[in-house]
């Protein structure tokens, strides 16, 4: 089975050394209100404090460092609903490489503005996965650059896995890690690193009911993309899990927990009000999975699971909407 994994723990360890000078080691903090609602000790990995406002800078920096080693690089291209675009723009700027970011017209204005502020060139497209891919291909053909996928480029996945390394350094007693899943780059990177460092640890993905392709894929035993673009407040996880992430999710992620739109909204507001942390609704997906007690019935969850690391993946919320 493991033959089909595109990254291993050595890739994550190498990424950690590369990206350390470029990123924040974000705090792992407790909020008693959230722990009380969850019925166990919840440790929040505050990637909303990360550079560019999300974990995406980890994978983007690792990927760009590899691209920068090539002499022939003209530019980098990606498509993103926002956070990955910002991260690639900033990482590309750090390495002195132009970045073209294809973004759906529906992306929050704050995310488009942020990409531009990091020196990225925004190219807008219709808000479907198909249109994003097509536009990115067009730009690539025109500019002749290197494509960096938000979740399926192996160096990106390895970079996201550094989250688990940091979390287990900050608290070696974590029994489980919960993180939202969209394309699957973060959860697969986390699973590879966490299970290598601590084989007994459980890794759970959280997903909106409206965008439940990872949940369906785990049940079916094969990658099961959604037929149409989902409508969810969690704009960071609308995409389908990718071909590179799927084998790792299949083999190493213990279970997938789905939550409703109402639960996501309530969880997001709870974090704003009680933890005093500005998170985006995509971060609320993981919180909802934990406070809704749905985790208690997840596969592999038992009384031995006392300490849970929860990734707050980002804080790029349009406060005006």
Automatic annotation (TrEMBL):
Location of the Tryptophan synthase beta chain-like PALP domain? 20-314
Keyword presence, Magnesium: yes
List GO molecular-function terms, semicolon-separated: ATP binding; L-serine ammonia-lyase activity; magnesium ion binding; pyridoxal phosphate binding; serine racemase activity
Q: Which PANTHER family match?
A: SERINE / THREONINE RACEMASE FAMILY MEMBER, SERINE RACEMASE
The entry's family comment says: Belongs to the serine/threonine dehydratase family.
Q: What is this protein called?
A: L-serine ammonia-lyase
Keywords assigned? Lyase, Magnesium, Pyridoxal phosphate
Q: Which InterPro entries match?
A: Ser/Thr_deHydtase_PyrdxlP-BS, TrpB-like_PALP, TrpB-like_PALP_sf
Q: Which SUPFAM superfamilies is this protein grouped with?
A: Tryptophan synthase beta subunit-like PLP-dependent enzymes
Q: Which organism is it from?
A: Ciona intestinalis
Q: What lineage, starting at the top, does this entry show?
A: Eukaryota, Metazoa, Chordata, Tunicata, Ascidiacea
Give cofactor(s), names only: Mn(2+); pyridoxal 5'-phosphate; Ca(2+); Mg(2+)
């Amino acid at each position: 089975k493991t033959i089909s994994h595109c990254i291993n723990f050595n890739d994550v360890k190498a990424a950690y050394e590369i990206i350390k000078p470029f990123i924040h080691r974000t705090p792992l903090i407790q909020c008693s209100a959230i722990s009380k609602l969850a019925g166990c000790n919840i440790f929040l990995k505050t990637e909303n404090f990360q550079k560019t406002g999300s974990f995406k800078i980890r994978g983007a920096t690792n990927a760009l460092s590899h691209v920068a080693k090539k002499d022939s690089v003209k530019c980098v291209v990606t498509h993103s609903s926002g956070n990955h675009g910002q991260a690639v723009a900033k990482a590309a700027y750090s390495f002195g490489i132009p970045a073209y970011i294809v973004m759906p017209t529906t992306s929050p204005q704050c995310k488009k503005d942020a990409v531009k502020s990091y020196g990225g060139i925004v190219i807008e497209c219709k808000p479907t996965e198909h249109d994003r891919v097509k536009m990115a291909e067009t730009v690539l053909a025109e500019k002749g650059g290197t494509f960096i996928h938000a979740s399926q480029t192996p160096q990106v996945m390895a970079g996201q896995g550094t989250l688990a390394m940091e979390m287990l350094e900050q608290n070696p007693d974590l029994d489980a890690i919960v993180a939202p899943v969209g394309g699957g780059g973060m959860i697969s990177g986390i699973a590879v690193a966490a299970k290598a460092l601590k084989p007994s640890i459980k890794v759970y993905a959280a997903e909106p009911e409206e965008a439940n392709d990872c949940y369906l894929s785990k049940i079916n035993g094969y990658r099961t993309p959604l037929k149409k673009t989902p409508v969810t407040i969690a704009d960071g996880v609308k995409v389908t899990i990718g071909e590179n992430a799927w084998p790792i999710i299949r083999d190493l992620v213990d279970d997938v927990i789905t939550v409703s739109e109402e639960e996501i909204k309530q969880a997001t507001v709870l974090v704003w009000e009680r933890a005093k942390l500005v998170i985006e609704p995509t971060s609320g997906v993981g919180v909802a999975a934990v406070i809704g007690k749905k985790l208690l019935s997840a596969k592999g969850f038992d009384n031995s699971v006392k300490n849970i690391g929860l990734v707050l993946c980002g804080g790029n919320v349009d406060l005006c909407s």
